Amino acid sequence: MLNVYRIVQKPFAKSAFTGAGSRHYPGRWNSAGTPMVYTSGSVALATLEMLVHLNSEVDLFEYRLFRVGVPTDSIEIVTPKKLPNSWKQDNPTGAAQEFGTIWALSTRSLALCVPSVVVPHDFNYLLNPTHADFAFIEIGRPEKYTFDL
Fold this sequence. Notes:
The protein is of the alpha+beta class.
């Protein structure tokens, strides 16, 4: 098992692994309508990935951290050379969203390992909640997660 991490606001803890948020709000790797669960390879990267999307410090209260075990044989690794040229742009482009959406719809793997834009030497792990093996991930209990401001 590979441990990955997800940080969510407390009100969304119960639905953190449904893909509902990404289904309604497209992200870098998914188009609207495509459920996807974004996780990171470390707590530090999960923190940074979350912080870059905040609008104000007020948003830094009431978070939950999940440790998630993902079967290593169910992870597909993608190198930057295989990604669309525009995958690192500040505003996600249709090419990166299409890449992730095609992966999710194919259900060829439970997880997709992609490089982080925030920390290029680290990795994020996209989880496909519609994959038949999604039930085999091990979702840890949510832990209160706070920031030292």
